[in-house]
Write a structure and sequence with these properties.
Blueprint: H1 2-21, E1 23-29, E2 43-45, E3 67-68, E4 71-72, H2 73-81, E5 86-89, E6 113-115, E7 121-123, H3 129-139, E8 142-147, H4 154-165, H5 171-178, E9 189-192, H6 205-218, E10 228-235, H7 239-248, E11 256-263, H8 281-308, E12 315-323, H9 342-357, E13 362-368, E14 378-381, E15 384-387, H10 389-397, E16 404-406, E17 408-409, E18 414-417, E19 420-423, E20 425-431, E21 437-443, E22 450-457, E23 464-470, E24 489-491, E25 494-497, E26 500-505, E27 509-515
Parallel strand pairs: 1-22, 2-5, 2-13, 5-8, 8-9, 9-10, 10-11, 11-12, 12-13
Antiparallel strand pairs: 1-17, 3-4, 6-7, 14-15, 16-20, 18-19, 20-21, 21-27, 22-26, 23-24, 23-27, 25-26
Helix pairs in contact: 4-5, 6-7, 7-8, 8-9, 9-10
Bound molecules: alpha-L-arabinofuranose.
Length: 516
């Protein structure tokens, strides 16, 4: 009998041990926050590519939706709700073939060109500088211009800056006025080329560093518009590019340097990248493993930047990121149109947590791209429009913009697949100007919920509310027939116990908690 009882006791003990081992403890330090999460981490990107500008933001008479000029206002309203802080334009690869003078003046007289980068379609230049600035003003967002280094001249870029920003007497200010805009726009975010290692000119970093200094010198500051010049940076793990740029370009000539990294499900640029909607758990795992690479990239590029800039004056600008899959069957391969699933929402939540946690160096980032291209926030089909799961994550995370970053420490349980494992949970936290604390959590494991216990140091709160983005399957999507399948829902899995916060984090979910 004794023996049986002690066996039962041992079994209960083992069960308890298992239960304890499954609880992850998070420590959030709100005592003395040091860094601010720049709102510009939540930036977006709109290229003359596929149906992003044309048939996305900018539509013809046949599309019967409310418009200002030809700008779709339903799209504008949706983006305004998530407070997009900046919009990068006109590319991408397109930027290094774009000649801005083709996109000003009477539309009928604007020259046409072939968009050689994206599908070989006709670019009629009906959407140019004035149209983009009108879009930014409707969105109440800051423009981030990518200037042409690859095929443009120093003079061409210098004159574009003058066209945007010069007040008073100047030939470019006069031309701008003639085209209907008297006041300078005072644009400050200015990219000097794009992917100069590839579509932007196939340069070596040493050659580009010299060219950068030349173009940047003549991209002048005008009254009230000091330029924040951003150098074209590394392709993923090309650490030498960052090293050469940081070594050769003086701090005062470079506000930021970019990093481009896309999550490819198969990890393969040459063959199939993987479908946006049809994938098994193995490919899902691989996608998430590739997505988490961003942490290492940011760490290693930052370490190089620290060597030359310990004061962290130069920003790491991740101005192209997101999942890149095969295009939807039957669509133009050059248009990069892909559906957007719960998997993409988990990628967005994870990547934004990484950026928040590196906000001392990452001061700006741009998801590629806003409408109908790659990891889009919005998809359109004639008059119809849908918000993707990724949009809803940006909606949850907007609370972090310009808030004080609170460090979160924990050891994540593993999500395993065969012999491989990745951290199942990632998180970030911040305190906003009203004193509210926000925690965003992602559980990448599609099979297991996570039990979390959170200790909070230096956080005043009396209650917790939450919101969640999740769905039954990781490849669930919103469609034009069922646009509300995945949306933000109330989350009731968090509770206060003393000063501790307990959370039951569902499998495959992104959660935002508000502590007040
Ligand atoms: O976002 C699509 C393309 O990806 C951009 O034009 C280019 O910069 C990158 O290679």
């Amino acid at each position: 009998m004794m023996k049986r009882l002690s066996l039962v006791a041992m079994a209960i003990g083992a069960l308890q041990l298992t239960a304890v081992a499954q609880t992850t403890t998070l420590q959030i330090d709100g005592a003395a926050p040091k860094n601010t999460i720049s709102r510009h981490i939540y930036g977006h990107f709109a290229e003359h590519l596929g149906r992003c500008i044309y048939d996305g933001f900018w539509v013809g008479d046949s599309i019967k939706v409310p418009k200002k000029d030809r700008i779709r206002l339903d799209v504008v309203d949706a983006l305004k709700k998530i407070n997009i802080p900046n919009l990068r334009w006109p590319g991408g690869c397109f930027a290094d073939e774009y000649h801005w003078r083709d996109g000003i003046g009477p539309r009928k007289q604007r020259p046409k060109m072939v968009n050689t980068n994206w599908g070989g379609v006709t670019e009629d230049n009906s959407f140019g500088t004035h149209e983009f600035m009108e879009l930014c003003s409707l969105l109440k967002t800051e423009p981030y211009i990518a200037g042409n280094v690859g095929s443009g001249t120093v003079e061409e870029m210098a004159k574009w800056v003058e066209y945007f920003n010069a007040g008073g007497e100047s030939s470019m200010a006069a031309l701008r006025k003639q085209n209907g805009r008297a006041e300078p726009w005072k644009v400050t975010y200015w990219g000097v080329g794009n992917e100069s290692w590839g579509c932007g000119g196939n340069m070596t970093p040493d050659y580009y560093a010299d060219l950068y200094k030349r173009y940047a010198t003549y991209a002048r500051d005008y009254l009230g518009a000091p330029l924040r010049k951003i150098a074209s940076g590394a392709n993923g793990g090309d650490y030498n590019w960052t090293e050469v740029m940081m070594k050769n370009v003086p701090r005062n000539q470079m506000w930021g340097i970019t990093l481009h990294y896309y999550t490819l499900p198969t990890g393969n640029w040459r063959g199939s990248k993987g479908s946006a909607t049809i994938f098994d758990e193995k490919l899902y795992f691989n996608t998430m493993k590739n997505c988490l690479q961003m942490e290492e990239l940011v760490n290693r590029h930052s370490a190089i930047m620290d060597k030359y800039d310990s004061a962290k004056r130069v920003a790491l600008v991740v101005d192209e990121w997101g999942i890149w899959t095969d295009v939807e069957p039957g669509t133009n391969p050059g248009f990069l149109y892909q559906q957007n699933s719960l998997r993409d929402a988990l990628i967005a939540g994870t990547t934004l947590n990484i950026f928040n946690n590196h906000c001392d160096r990452v001061k700006m980032a741009n998801l590629a791209q806003t409408v109908n291209v790659l990891q889009a926030l919005i998809l359109t089909q004639r008059e119809k429009m849908l918000l993707t799961p990724t949009y809803h994550v940006f909606d949850l995370y907007k609370v972090h913009m310009d808030a004080k970053h609170l460090p979160v420490k924990f050891t994540s349980p593993d999500y395993t697949m065969g012999n491989e494992k990745i951290p199942a949970i990632n998180a970030s936290a911040s305190r906003d100007s009203t004193g509210a604390t926000h925690i965003t959590l992602v559980n990448l494991d599609p099979n297991k919920k996570q039990t979390l216990s959170t200790t909070l140091n230096g956080v005043q709160w009396s209650g917790v509310t939450g919101q969640i983005v999740t769905s039954g399957k990781v490849n669930d999507i919103n469609t034009f027939e069922n646009p509300g399948k995945i949306k933000v829902q109330n989350f009731t899995g968090a509770s206060k116990q003393g000063n501790n916060l307990n959370i039951e984090l569902p499998a495959q979910s992104v959660v935002m908690l508000e502590l007040k």
